[in-house]
Amino acid sequence: MSPLVVVKLKLGFEAPHGGLEWFSGTGWLIQKDLLVTAGHCVYSHGHRRPHVISIKAYLGYHGKDSESKDYVELRHGYQVATPTQWAKAQHVPHDVAFIQLMEKFDNVSLITYEDTPNCPREETLLVVGYPCDLPANGEGGSLMHVGKGLVSYDINSSHSKGMLEYPISTFYGMLRCLSKGRSELTSITGSSGSPVLRQQNNELIAIGTHRGGSHSLAKNMATAIGRRLHTDIRYDRYEEFFAQVHNGLLRLDQVPGQYDLVKMRSLPNETDDSVLNRTY
Prior knowledge:
Elements: E1 6-14, E2 20-31, E3 34-37, E4 54-59, E5 73-83, H1 84-89, E6 97-101, E7 112-113, E8 121-129, E9 145-153, E10 163-166, H2 173-179, E11 195-200, E12 203-213, E13 220-224, E14 226-227, E15 232-233, H3 235-246, E16 259-263
Parallel strand pairs: 7-12
Antiparallel strand pairs: 1-2, 1-4, 2-3, 3-6, 4-5, 5-6, 5-16, 8-9, 8-11, 10-13, 11-12, 12-13, 14-15
């Protein structure tokens, strides 16, 4: 897997006294102009204005000093869709979002995805993202980290409740937090939105999107992909949905009820220095 298919996100929300308050997150490309991230990265119920206003997506990011390098590409978010179950009810199994970019990224591979396995499994999984405690020049969330481990999981178990659970550390500080019984800190690492990957025939395939720590101590969790009894998060449906909107086949007043769609303004010149210590 090329390291360039996982995206560093800078997410601007309206600040209480004007301007933008910037947060850090992770995303991954399923089309050259469409990426997946966690729902709470773009619709945060803790904010007075919960919808994200501006999104910067970087490929090849390696700290603020790398932004001027030729190998780093920057794109801006144009519109975002989340399941209405997340936007309206903060239903955790629907904590996922899709970001349409203004322009396509150039010369990149895409991450293949498939439905999260329904039957119990034991296999090696990877979580790839930008955790907050891997700093470069004092900036948290500036370096990519790969968490890896052998995982036994069953998304249909009573404790999983439709989520993909794994004891993989998504950032080095997680181990310190867990030792103090503070697993809730794993949900603000900057890794939210990372792909959860399994290996199949020498290819890494995404089977979920990381959202943070679960109520089970020493467990992280991801939203599952696919249609199940109480969730319907079929990524190909979102790809089709954005294609219809882009091609003018679907007007905004015709958006189906299962999608919560928001357009954003692009603020490429907005300062984002405050992103340093704010992460999802």
